[in-house]
Amino acid sequence: MSEGVGRLVLAGTPIGDPGDATPKLARALAEADVVAAEDTRRLRRLTSDLGITVTGRVTSYFEGNERQRTDELVQALTEGLTVLVVTDAGMPSVSDPGYRLVAAAIEAGIPVTAVPGPSAVLTALALSGLPVDRFCFEGFLPRKAGERSRRLDELKKEQRTMVFFEAPHRLAVSLEAMAEAFGPDRRTAVCRELTKTYEEVKRGGAAELAKWAAEGVRGEITVVVSGADPADRELGPAELAAEVAADEEAGTPRKQAIADVAKRLGVPKRTVYDAVLAARGDQPKAPR
Question: Considering only CA atoms, which of 168, 232, 157, 227 is closest in space to residue 202?
Answer without folding.
Answer: 168
